[in-house]
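Input.
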Amino acid sequence: MITPIQLVYKLHLQSTFLEKYLNLPKGFATEPLAKAIYKCFNYDDLCSTISDLGEKTPSSYISEYSSLKFLLICEVSDEKLIEDLHQEIENMALRLEEQVIINITRTQLISLLYKLFGLEYESKYIVEADDIDLDWQPCFQTLQDNSVVLFSDFNINKTPFRLIATKLDLGEVSIEDYAEVVKKTMKQCAQFAYEDFEEHISWHINCSSIFLPFGSKNSDESPHYYKINGEQYIVYGFPLSPIISTDSDHEIENITVLVKNTSEKQVFTLNFEHQKLTLECLLLDKKCDGDVNHSEFSQQVKNGLFDHKESCRFPLVFNNNFYYLWIRPYSNVDFLNNAL
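Output.
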């Protein structure tokens, strides 16, 4: 069982961590740690409160000192502690910004605070969903190869999302070459089809022109293919239109993503079926009348990815704010940016 002496030493390690990663002078992080993270009057007050616990058990510590309970994360097995931290961590970041000059973004600061508590996956915005089995079904039924375009449904925060996977095998190409290869590949599959899927071809090319790094010399920006039954696919995803029902005979599975109130684009890594996809979340500028002031990029996303006939074209609401959420291919730079 962890002792008060060990907890006080852990506070010392946490203050040293903040000094290093926020570039603070030596000894300067103790007061912000006490006031912003643990809501104590000062660092001496924080340490004395913990030392006064004496022989009390961690469970009584948690119940009696709710503002200090996060010190026990990774010391005791309590999922409720982690859940409570998810709800409080934005407030911690806000209080810390009031205490010291922060030279990193709010998203990076929240990531840093997760790391302060030893939560590596949360600090890198990784969402574990390996236990979810995606049920891939053909989007079109009369192609020569019905597996060329597949879809699968699941929930994010209890909101239905649809993944659209398009089978492609491409090297480094320009957007013009990419468009030609996509059209050629798709039309070969549709040579004797009774379905017109020109609309899908156009939608996929528009999405790729927004999200794939054509012309980049950085290999870390190259998208990862998503493999389904051994074949390579490019996958995009969107919230499902409320007039479209999910194509499933059973309740579709849900993953929880902790969307933060920050104007910076949030990038999450979704671990599906031992592979990765990227979920992006963008806070929209809400007008007084409830409409949205679109940036050039959010307008691109609306006119491109959300232009799919099955997509919800309205923003999602979290924490009384409007957000766009979408899924695109994962690239190594997503991990590198979140790990810094």
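The chain has two domains: 4-118, 137-339.
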